[in-house]
Amino acid sequence: MLKDMLIKHGFFYLLDTAREEVFYELREKNKQHFILIENDRVNTKLIEMFSSRSGGFLILGQTDEKRTHQLSTLFGASAIMSFPFPSDKLGKKIIERS
């Protein structure tokens, strides 16, 4: 569903993976990619990677989850987007954070 939302708003080049090792392999090939990631998938290695960036990523989570609050404190509210959200808002947030 997320992929369909993004394609609808003009984001045509999307890479999707659920496997962490594939993510890091793709990331090494092109560091320009924007990253959308669910809050429960953010580990220590990603926290280090995101800490050195001012944008280029967006963490998706639920507002009532403790992990979402922790990551919001770490990266700021602009780095977090809570479910549910309209597709146009997601597109705008990606553009803002790119």
Written overview of the protein:
47% of the residues lie in helices and 12% in strands. It has one domain (2-97). It starts with a helix and ends with a helix. It has 98 residues and is an alpha/beta fold. Helix 1 crosses helix 5 (87-97). Strand 2, helix 4 and strand 3 (80-82) form a beta-alpha-beta unit. The mean pLDDT is 82.
Q: What distinguishing features does this structure have?
A:
alpha/beta, single chain, 3-stranded parallel beta sheet, 98 residues, 3 strands, 12% strand
- Cα separation of the termini: 21 Å
List the domain count as a whole number: 1
- Helical content band: 40-55%
Compute the number of strand runs: 3
Strand order of the largest sheet: 1-2-3
The topology string of helices and strands comes to HHEHEHEH
Shape: globular
Low-pLDDT runs of 5+ residues are none
Tally of DSSP helical segments: 5
Structural class: alpha/beta
Q: Residue-averaged pLDDT, rounded? A: 82
Q: What integer value in Å does the Rg equal?
A: 13 Å
Largest sheet: 3 strands, parallel
SS strand fraction: 5-15%
